[in-house]
Task: inverse folding
């Protein structure tokens, strides 16, 4: 008897004895990834024999870390190679945006010549990380490469040459370096993959990635498109927390940067979406980060800090959480500590297409810390990447005013008003909830020195 279906309900209807022997949850775990079964008569109750397996891909990027190959003549390095692969698996499992195959499954390939495409099919993953270790004298070289399983294309590759005087410290250093590099590389590959597909054929994850891409373009038009794709993601999968978090972020960006939506209304709506994301998956660090962002917009520094710390407890290397921690510290009166957190976030995801947003926060921290020359330099970097950024010119004008470069300050001030008069009115003539009164006064002081008149 053949059952050619992955839906466990049909197995339950046709083979009730299987449920009696194994229990419902175990049958679910067996049947979902399996395509074809055969009932095999045995003494007692019959059982299922798997004829073929083809695990379906999860609704987020999936990766398997294969055992690293020991290329040295020293057999003791086998433990070092295994340790690196095991630690990478553990570290990557903390990223809420990744589905990482457990060590017991990926290590079944140890000592075997493997075909990456076959590994991808057998484990149901889109990406495979493989590596090798070679020792020569007191030096060790570890190479790692990330491959898209279906196509065989290399997504990322790197090598690490280290002195082995402190072998465990070297293991930790290489593990961190590889993990930090992998998550952004996968995110970039996923965005490119989503952009190649027609919008109408996107699944929930693809629509979410498409939304992130438009959000990163950092224009009013793209921000509106981002909202539409996040709404599409929610419609396709109402249980996917990422869609709600993305929509909350897009609504805040539309309101606080481009002034295309009413700020109080959008903060209210964004909080609802962020809380929905947390309710759907309390273990999703990105959902907690999103809620922290919304609470910061309300001026609730303590609440924002609590959510962000929850996110970092779940996923210590989540770049966006470090960035939000930096913003929270800056606006609550700790600009130097905030700058350190921002720099940590940028280091964790140096290829983030929205890095200009993070660097704009760097400008704020430097201005509030009264390091005006550094603030000017950082502001010009943001302008180079985002020439139509409606917020950064204001900080450039204020910093230039503080150092007495009045002609340049006036030019920046004119640009700040011209790009978005509504934004200038909101942040200067009024005060947003997340700006403290003393920081707002400090900003006005710089703008007045730049030539602004109340």
Result:
């Amino acid at each position: 008897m053949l059952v050619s279906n992955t839906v466990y309900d049909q197995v339950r209807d046709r083979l009730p004895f299987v449920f009696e022997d194994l229990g419902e949850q175990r049958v679910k775990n067996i049947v979902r990834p399996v395509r074809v079964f055969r009932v095999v008569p045995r003494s007692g109750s019959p059982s299922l024999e798997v004829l073929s397996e083809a695990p379906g891909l999860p609704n987020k990027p999936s990766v398997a870390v294969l055992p690293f190959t020991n290329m040295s003549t020293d057999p003791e390095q086998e433990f070092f190679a295994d340790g690196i692969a095991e630690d990478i698996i553990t570290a990557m499992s903390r990223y809420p945006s990744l589905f990482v195959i457990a060590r017991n499954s990926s290590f079944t390939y140890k000592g075997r010549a493997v075909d990456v495409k076959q590994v991808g099919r057998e484990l149901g993953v889109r990406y495979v990380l493989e590596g090798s270790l070679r020792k020569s004298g007191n030096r060790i070289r570890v190479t790692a490469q990330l491959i898209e399983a279906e196509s065989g294309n290399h997504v990322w590759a790197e090598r690490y040459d280290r002195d082995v005087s402190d072998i465990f410290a070297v293991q930790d250093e290489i593990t961190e370096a590889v993990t930090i590099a992998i998550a952004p590389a996968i995110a970039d590959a996923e965005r490119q993959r989503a952009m190649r597909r027609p919008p109408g054929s996107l699944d929930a994850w693809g629509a979410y990635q498409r939304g992130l891409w438009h959000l990163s373009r950092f224009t009013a038009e793209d921000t509106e498109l981002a909202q539409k794709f996040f709404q599409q993601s929610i419609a396709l999968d109402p249980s996917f927390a990422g869609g709600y978090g993305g929509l909350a972020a897009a609504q805040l960006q539309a309101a606080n940067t481009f002034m295309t939506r009413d700020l109080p209304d959008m903060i209210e709506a964004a909080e609802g979406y962020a809380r929905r994301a947390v309710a759907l998956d309390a273990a999703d660090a990105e959902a907690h980060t999103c809620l922290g962002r919304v609470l910061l917009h309300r001026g609730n520094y303590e609440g924002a800090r609590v959510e962000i710390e929850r996110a970092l407890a779940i996923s210590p290397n989540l770049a966006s959480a470090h960035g939000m921690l930096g913003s929270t510290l800056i606006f609550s009166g700790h600009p130097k500590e905030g700058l350190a957190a921002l720099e940590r976030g940028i280091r964790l995801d140096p290829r983030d297409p929205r890095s200009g947003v993070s660097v704009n926060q760097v400008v704020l921290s430097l201005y509030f810390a009264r390091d005006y020359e550094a603030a000017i330099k950082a502001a010009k970097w943001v302008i180079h990447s985002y020439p139509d950024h409606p917020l950064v010119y204001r900080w450039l004008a204020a910093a230039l005013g503080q150092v007495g470069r009045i002609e340049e300050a006036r030019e920046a001030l004119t640009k700040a008003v011209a790009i978005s008069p509504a934004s200038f009115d909101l942040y200067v003539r009024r005060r947003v909830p997340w700006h403290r009164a003393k920081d707002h006064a400090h900003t006005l002081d710089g703008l007045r020195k730049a030539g602004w008149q109340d």
